[in-house]
Amino acid sequence: MLKELLGSLRAVPIDLVFCAGDMLHFKCSSSLTQGKVRKVRARLPEGQMFGARIEVLAQDEKSRLYKGRLLEPLAAIAHLRGLLPLPFEDRRVSPRIERTVRVLSPQLEGFSALTRDISLQGLCLVVSQVLSVGARMQVEMDLDASSPHPVRFDLETRWSAPDLLTGKNLVGGCFLTMNQRQRTVLKNYLASTLTQ
Predict the structure, then answer these.
(1) pLDDT, position 63
(2) CATH architecture of 2-83
(3) pTM of the predicted structure, to 2 decimals
(4) Which is nearest to 161 in space by CA: 151, 173, 146?
(5) Whether the Cβ atoms of residue 113 and residue 123 lie closer than 8 Å to each other
């Protein structure tokens, strides 16, 4: 009994944020070393706590959000997936195409960013700054090789999340009203990427 009590006092407290597959994303006020296995006192958003062992895999410096693999209790991962949903859901109706395109916008740090993927409804940007959900921006992309003019779109950010692998931020945006030329150029670009 005393050994368990001492063990739980040495366990590091963490706050669970979300669960993606078998990976936990969590916050911790203590500094954790990547690659180490730690005993933790994991707290759910509602306040419940449980003891666990986690392998620390990575940390996003800006958000102080850690990524780790739950080692014990393994049975908890199925329950945590339901309790800790992803911070956003993919609501795209059309398929997204993984394609890197340079995007220009005065609202972006350095005035440019790269896309991770594009669809008829929107895109995912890899940016170095944090953009607030609901922010609107005007973006330009060179999608039409036959035209010297870039295509401009109005975009509204729908979600933002840290990319723990690159240390940057991912921002999902939805295209607002599109005219016929914008829609045609985007459709043609997406169709051409499928044939390459």
Answers:
(1) 67
(2) Beta Barrel (2.40)
(3) 0.55
(4) 173
(5) no
